[in-house]
Design goal:
Blueprint (H helix, E strand, L loop, with lengths): L2 H10 L21 H20 L4 H24 L6 H9 L2 H21 L1 H11 L6
Helix pairs in contact: 1-5, 2-3, 2-4, 2-5, 3-6, 5-6
C-alpha cells in the first residue's frame, strides 16, 4: 500500500475526485465547483474506509478489494478528465473546507490497514494490491 500516496494526497490536497458525481446533471469535471470535487473525493474515500473497516473474513477482503478497485477507477477517470492534475491553488480551494474530513478518513484507512496487517497478512496482501492501484496525484 502506498501510505505515502494517501498522506500526500490528503495533506497536500492534490488528489482528485471521483467521476460519477452529479453537478447540474453531469459528471464531475475540471469545471466543477471545488465543493463538488471535494465532496465526491471524500465520498470515494468513505467507501474505501468503510470497506476496510468491514473486513472480517477472506470473502470480506475480496468484497473490499472490489470496492477499492471501483474507487480507483473512478479516481483515475476524474484524473484523466482534469488532464491528470489540479493546480496547487485550486487544490487548496477544493480541499480547504474538507481538510478535517480528509484527515479523519486517512486515519481510519491507516488504522484499518494496520489492524488487517496484524490480523491476517494474506488478506492484507490482497487489499494492498488494490490500494497500490489508487492513482497518484
Amino acid at each position: 500500500m502506498r501510505v505515502g500516496f494517501m498522506s500526500t494526497a490528503i495533506i497536500a490536497g492534490l488528489a482528485v475526485a471521483s467521476c460519477g458525481g452529479e453537478e447540474s446533471g453531469g459528471p464531475v469535471t475540471a469545471a466543477s465547483s471545488p465543493e463538488k470535487i471535494a465532496d465526491t473525493y471524500v465520498s470515494e474515500l468513505e467507501k474505501v474506509a468503510g470497506a476496510l473497516e468491514g473486513i472480517e473474513s477472506a470473502d470480506d477482503a475480496e468484497a473490499a478489494a472490489k470496492i477499492i478497485q471501483e474507487a480507483s477507477q473512478s479516481l483515475e477517470a476524474i484524473t484523466e478528465a482534469l488532464d491528470g492534475e489540479i493546480s496547487g491553488m485550486k487544490a487548496m480551494r477544493i480541499f480547504a473546507s474538507r481538510g478535517n474530513d480528509l484527515m479523519a478518513l486517512q486515519q481510519r484507512i491507516a488504522a484499518s490497514m494496520t489492524t488487517l496487517a496484524q490480523a491476517d497478512p494474506e488478506m492484507m496482501t490482497r487489499i494492498s494490491e488494490e490500494m497500490e492501484k489508487l492513482p497518484s496525484p
